[in-house]
Design goal:
- About 65% of the residues lie in helices and about 0% in strands.
- By secondary structure, it is mainly α.
- The chain has one domain.
- The protein is elongated, with a radius of gyration of 25 Å.
Length: about 100
């Protein structure tokens, strides 16, 4: 089996396609290597957490966990999908304390 040959026109077309993409490269140096590794590990952790979430929500009757799109999005963007719920609970507790006191 021989290697497929690429002619010069195909090579130039492939190089142009790569050049059109907006890619920013960060050179890994001794000074930033630890930061780059930590960022990669955080990304891996987010992906694994998302996979666990998807696996747990695959069968809601069995796991008791229902898929919520906002929760899945929050895994990656770091937001808190339950902020409104927390605020409502705190407001209800404050109102109950005020009414009791």
């Amino acid at each position: 089996m021989s290697k497929p040959e690429i002619n010069e026109a195909e090579l130039n077309a492939a190089m142009e396609d790569d050049a059109d993409q907006d890619v920013t490269e960060i050179r890994i140096t001794n000074e930033n290597a630890l930061i780059v590794m930590a960022q990669a590990l955080v990304g891996i952790e987010k992906h694994l957490f998302a996979l666990v979430y998807l696996e747990n929500t695959r069968d809601p009757e069995k796991s008791g966990v229902t898929y919520v799109p906002d929760v899945f999005k929050s895994i990656y963007d770091g937001s808190d999908p339950f902020v409104e719920v927390d605020e409502s609970v705190k407001a209800a507790a404050a109102k109950a304390a005020k009414d009791a006191g």
